[in-house]
Amino acid sequence: MLKQAIRRSVDIEQSGLRFDLTVSSATEGDSPLNHELEFWERGFSPADGPPEVNLSVLNGFSHRYESTLQRDVSGAIKAKQKESLLQLMSHIEPNIKDIHILADDERGHGLFVEYVGEGFIPLSTLGDGMRRALHFASSLMKARGGVLLIDEIEIAIHTSVIGAVFDWLVDACVEHDVQLFATTHSLEAVDAILAGRRESLSDIVAFRLDGGRLAKRHRGELLHRLRFGRGLEVRR
Amino acid sequence: MKRALIVVEGPHDVELVGTMLRSLVLAPKPKRIRFKRDLEPFWHPLVPTEFPIDDDMAARVPVPVFFGTTTHSVAVLNVGGDSRLLPALEESLAMLAGGADMVGIVMDADDRQPSERWSALVDSSAAEDLEIGLPRVAGRIDTGPPRVGGFILPDGASEGTLEDLMLDAASIVYPELLDHARAYTDNALELAKAQRGPLSGKAWKQEWKLFVDKPAGRRKALVASMGAVLRPGKAIQNSIQDNRWFRDPEALKHPRIAAVRVWLADLLELPLPAAG
After folding, report:
1. Are B129 and A222 in contact (CB < 8 Å)?
2. Torsion angle (degrees, nearest 10) of CA A71, A72, A74, A79
3. What domains can be seen in chain A, in order of their start residue?
4. Taking CB atoms and an 8 Å limit, are A222 and B90 in contact across chains?
5. Global ipTM
6. Which tens digit of pLDDT belongs to each residue from B33-75?
7. Which residues of B touch A192 (CB under 8 A)?
8. Per the CB < 8 Å rule, is B91 touching A225?
């Protein structure tokens, strides 16, 4: 409603470094608008909306759709980020040599992982964990300089490696300037993540639903104490 | 229902607060809640669900002691040392939906003036991410909400510890036992000094240093020797809980002991207890 109101009645006079902004309601009789406006470095234009941010969103099952993975891998290739993608994957599976989209008799075309010494393996025959890891990596490439949202981060990742996978993901996010937001219902995931980042807990902020309507913010160090110092159930 | 969270330094302090609660104007008298099924859900987030804590099988499980009555529900958390008072408070408040109605801190003055101890705590609270502010003066209650206050043992005005309060109580409730205990510990002090020659330096320190060099150590030994008679084979907190230290009406009239009661009543918004 606010956007519509602004679009309908905004006068901007720009003269050098100064501009005057007048905003009035789209509907006569509406109470005055009272809203904070932020001015972004690249300039503010209400008609264009807020600046674009690279955004990737992963839910708990999107890695199972090969079309999604093909799209993201293709995007990485087009953005000349395939080498980065392969480098990321090599941390998960050192024997991965390359990833290809190849013609496939049954499906028309599909993703194939080329392993050292083993040739081309259809991604569809590999485990859920590998698909999820590829989805993380390719989505991260898409979100470079922006935001990566991962729902239920623990899905398809065995609890014994969730800490290592999270470490890999965080390091990759740092390398590619990606802000990571992840959700989880898993205490094992929370513990593995905290244990893995023990030396850099300040990198982690957790938001926990408090009574269903409010979210309490906990810095990583506090969350670590709640779990390892007090043994408390931090999920709601 | 008013819910109060009180953090204390050690297990003896838990029993002090618990015993004091029973002396306040509460009906029925607060009961210690033993089973989680009897604990109201508000406090469930403070009950640990993991063992061992931080992989340490020797570490105590940090669960509060809960007291309940029809009007008040009180959680008293032994944090295991003064350096953990604020972190434990921060952790506990972070876990409670909506926060507690009353928040209290009970700590020893040790060998510092209470005002100095409290100021240091308040200053360090600025560095923590507490959801509440602490009153600038110990002994006072900020009405908030929530109501927040701190009490520095033994009496809010003197250096010392909980043991000083126990000795005050003992002088009223167990005067003869106290005399025997003093004679015992005085003899032990002489024995300790005599041991400096026969024992090696390291061995002597290991056995006697805490008792000989620290006045607080001698007070603790005095209290412990009485507790050993009053509750043989049990820890001092059991004696505080079961014996008359802070249950005796005359002991509760002692000005230093009464000061704790008055503070606690104020924190919990209860009428001031009648003398005795």
Report:
1. yes
2. 140
3. 1-49 (no CATH), 56-196 (3.40.50.300)
4. yes
5. 0.90
6. 999 999 999 999 999 999 999 899 999 999 999 999 999 999 9
7. none
8. yes
